[in-house]
Amino acid sequence: MASILVIDAETKTKNLLMECLETAGFEVVGTNNDIIHVQLAQDKLSTTEESTKSNTLGTSIFPSVPRLRKVFEFIELNYHQSINLKQTAQAVGYSSAYLTDIVRRLTGKTVNDWIIERRLAEARALLLSTKDSANQIALQVGYQNINHFYCQFRDYHKNTPHAWRKAQRCQLIQN
Fold first, then answer.
1. Which distant-in-sequence residues (6+ apart) come within 8 Å of 168 by Cβ?
2. What are the phi and psi torsion angles at 36 (to 5°)?
3. Residue 161 contacts by C-beta under 8 Å, 6 or more apart in sequence?
4. By the 8 A CB rule, do 80 and 45 touch?
5. Who has greater pLDDT, 144 or 37?
6. What domain count does the chain have?
7. Domain check: are 110 and 34 in the same one?
8. Which end of the chain is flanked by fewer CB atoms within 10 Å, N or C?
């Protein structure tokens, strides 16, 4: 955490400064008289990443990075459709190259990685909560190509969707 001393600034100026800091990827933790306490949103990233690894229904998989909020909102609202980097960049008003760079710098992953992670998180939830086939689930979570879904699922989980579902259900029964 860092503190910024703002001397003889009007409230309007302080608010503008805080808005600029948030846009730059800082989180304003608090204010006290002429001091603004901030931390890099990236400093919170490790705890957010840990919570996304144990993803449960209703929990966001995305890190809390104010500068990328609109990016993650767009992915959340559209992951079940055929979206890509270019469409995401257009939706948030950035070029594809800039968006790729900033997302990678702030999260260590690409926009496409986040789209895949969101789709796979929903696929896992559906595999556990429904009797839908893996093919049906692939289509529901935005994959146009069923084989592509199987490949990505296998790369991520080292197992097929069907085998993963079976293993998870067995584990639930044992617990």
1. 127, 128
2. -110, 120
3. 123, 127, 134, 137, 138, 149, 150, 153
4. no
5. 144
6. 2
7. no
8. C
The whole-angstrom separation of Cα 84 and Cα 81 is 9
- Pick the more confident residue, 23 or 154: 154
Q: Provide the residue range defining the domain that includes 10.
A: 2-40
Beta strands across the sheet bearing 35-40? 2-5, 35-40, 26-32
Number of Cα atoms under 13 Å in the Cβ half of residue 7 = 0
Burial level of 88, CB count in 10 A (0-12/13-18/19+)? buried
**Which pair of tokens denotes residue 88?**
């995401």
Confidence at residue 44, expressed as pLDDT on a 0 to 100 scale: 41
> Running DSSP on this structure, what letter comes out for residue 93?
T
Report residue 39 as tokens: 């931390």
DSSP assignments along 41-79, one per residue? GGGGHHHHHHHHHT--TT---S---GGGHHHHHHHHHHT
> Has residue 71 been placed in a domain?
yes
pLDDT tens figures, 37-96: 767 654 443 333 333 333 334 568 998 989 999 999 999 999 999 999 999 999 999 999
